[in-house]
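Before relying on records like the one below, remember that each one covers exactly one chain. Contacts with other chains, cofactors or solvent are not represented anywhere in the record.
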Amino acid sequence: MKKFLSAIIVCLPLAAIAQSVAINNDASLPDNTALLDIKSTTKGLLIPRMSTAQRTGIASPALGLTVFDTNTFSYWVHRGLANGGWTEIKPGVESYWTATGTDIYSSNSGNVGIGTPNPASKLTVNDIDPVIALMNNGIATGFLQATGYNLRLQTHPDNPVGNIVLGTKGNDYMYVSPLGKIGFGIADPVGKFQIATGDPASLAQHGYLMLGNVNSINTVIDNNDILARSNGSYTNLYIQRLGGNVVMGDPSNFNSSHKLGVEGNLVVTGGLRVGTTVGPNGYKLAVDGKVICTELMVRIVANWPDYVFKNDYKLPKLDDVESFIKQNNHLPGVPSAASMEKSGLNVGEMQKLQMEKIEELTLYIIDLKKEIELLKAEK
């Protein structure tokens, strides 16, 4: 034992002042604030080294007991059971991160900066066109990048089939396909912009797409209807209101003077007004102006006057017809001029009346022919 102490004294000069100890090779005195002052420019200090199991197996470790853990490759100090027991001694930045199983969390109350000493938010990344890359099980999936004044959210070039997917509350709603097509409610849109589902367009429901404010003028669209609304009521829908034409079909069949061009059949179940905004009640077509056509078909009204040629038809006597004409200035059964001016001309009905008079006139001519032949026979 004496030889061992002598060896220490020979190798390392010692100085003891007021119970302070200095270990050095320049014979300097210990600092008066230190109980043990060690100096060297070629050697270090080794404290006890042990595994985690050995460290945690120390019975009743003293407060402040310090060891080097060979499993974590770090220093540990015992803070007493009331203060959490063994605590790993970490560098300043690492002390903000705490391990919980395989997870870590930060207790830092400030901001974290990458590439900047002045982070402006909880996490600030600074670089020239910085990128935050995302991988799925080692495969590059997508990235978030700031380029100039733009923010890019994209799938990775090595990801040829992935979509960009947006949603809320764990539900996926919007998709951007690898071909740049956008789908709502559909993961594989076939059009540049496709909405797969939605509500019907009505006063109470807002369709697949709504343009405008619900409490003002707005337009709602579903998969087969376009509806213009104004604060909960129906309103007008305008197309090409400020100029241009509306063409349905091949535009080569129309020119700039055609405000509405329709190729094929046009069906109107209500009233159609041309040249006027007010049409007479009870009529499907109202035209204020001239009408020209190469052919006009009027569907025949019921009871076409073939009845004139039936044996039971009572042909008016010419004397009675003459008397009616002298009194009324028009044929019996034919509307008067005053009636025509007031109510207009019913083409179908007038054709029927004219045919009735023609057939009656034919019968008069036949009777007259018989009378003439009878007179000739009497001579």
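The chain has four domains: 2-105, 110-195, 202-254, 305-378.
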